[in-house]
Design brief:
By secondary structure, the chain is α/β, with parallel strands linked by helices. It has twelve helices and 13 strands. The protein is globular, with a radius of gyration of 21 Å. Bound molecules: pyridoxal-5'-phosphate.
Length: about 375
């Protein structure tokens, strides 16, 4: 089976983690600080704060931006559930706007209609590693004096509008096992805003200012040095791994059968292909079954948009987002990870070509 994700773990990672084990200092320490410093440099910002995962990075960032009960945060419903949940954890309300039909990212054209006096933050999601249209979003945020929180959990190393993802205001990244770089579980907040960074540091460590003096309510959102040691090695691999993802995507887009719609990158952006996601209108599920039979794993990101999840319906979310819902019915992600071989790519191509499109029960 050609798998959807494979973490790249080498001798370097093994050695780095063993070193931490042998040091006897396993929790947040020197390695976490080193990872923060290097990740801030990757994003071209002054501050990075490591957290236990991408969800806690989003949660801490929202709290640090002062988001709370009565506030609204505008985001995209075509995302992993964490994008909506992190907003709910603060007591604020997610306001979902539709995505662009081509890039599948938050459509800036719908933003202004969604802004109310309660809006505090615009939270674009760089879905699949494709940056949202940040130039347009930033212009609207400025006009309405709103803050931006990038959900960059899938977009390590991406760029847009001549700038690095993670550098627009405040951003959250994830280092989950399948992401473009991993610490097993892990996250990071990046920003140039020293006050936001300081609040995130307090929030991740029970509001502690010095040992056992707690100035505000906080959480345990800490990353460990064991994880950070892994993350430092993964950061060394990130650029080469990203180039391989981009090369694999270019291959697919060249050989893709004409009845499939290839992914569309935001103009001027470096899409880092966390996922290579095609649209297969009318035959997505049959295609997924066919590829599985041919030994090619695929995954639907995401079959149910956040506003249609049962948890959200029960909270009273009830709206129609036509492009989001159409995308959820059509998308299918193909394996694009850096460890795929030329032979793997060729097998995926052959598997796609052998699908009896137009000859099956679905026309
Ligand atoms: C992975 C992911 C998250 C959450 O990150 P975790 O590390 O799994 O908590 C949030 N948003 C998006 C878009 C993600 O892909």
């Amino acid at each position: 089976m050609i798998r959807m994700a494979m973490p790249q773990i080498g001798e370097e990672e093994r050695r780095a983690v063993l070193e931490v084990l042998d040091s006897g200092m396993l929790a947040q320490g020197e390695r976490v600080r080193a990872l923060e410093e290097r990740f801030a440099a990757l994003c071209g910002v002054r501050h990075a704060v490591a957290t236990s995962n991408g969800t806690t990075a989003l949660h801490a960032a929202l709290l640090a931006l002062g988001v709370g009960p009565g506030d609204e945060v505008i985001t995209s419903s075509f995302s992993f559930i964490a994008s909506g949940n992190a907003i709910l954890f603060t007591g604020a309300r997610p306001v979902f706007v539709d995505v662009r039909p081509d890039t599948l990212n938050l459509d800036p054209g719908h933003l202004e209609a969604a802004i109310t006096p309660r809006t505090r933050v615009i939270m674009p999601v760089h879905l699949y590693g494709n940056p949202a249209d940040m130039a347009a979003i930033e212009a609207i945020a400025r006009r309405h004096a709103l803050r931006i929180l990038e959900d960059a959990c899938q977009a390590h190393g991406a760029t847009v509008a001549g700038r690095r993802v993670g550098s627009f205001d405040v951003a959250a990244f994830s280092f989950y096992g399948t992401k473009n770089m991993t610490t097993g579980e892990g996250g990071m907040v990046t920003t140039d805003d020293a006050a936001v960074a300081e609040r995130c540091r307090m929030l991740r460590n029970h509001g502690q200012s010095r040992r056992y003096y707690h100035d505000s309510l906080g959480y345990n959102f800490r990353l460990t040095d064991l994880q950070a040691a892994l993350g430092l090695c993964q950061l060394d691999r990130l650029e080469a791994a990203t180039e391989r993802r981009i090369a694999h995507a270019a291959y697919y887009s060249e050989v893709l059968p004409s009845w499939l719609t290839p992914p569309v990158a935001t103009p001027g952006a470096r899409h880092v292909y966390h996922q290579y996601t095609v649209r297969a209108p009318g035959c997505r599920d049959e295609l997924a079954r066919h590829l599985a039979e041919q030994g090619v794993q695929t995954i639907i990101y995401y079959p149910v948009p956040i506003h249609r999840q049962r948890a959200y319906l029960e909270m009273g979310f009830d709206q129609s987002l036509p492009e989001t819902e159409r995308a959820a019915a059509e998308v299918l992600s193909l394996p694009v990870h850096p460890l795929l071989t030329a032979e793997d790519l060729d097998r995926v191509r052959a598997a796609l070509e052998s699908f009896p499109y137009g000859r099956g029960p679905n026309g």
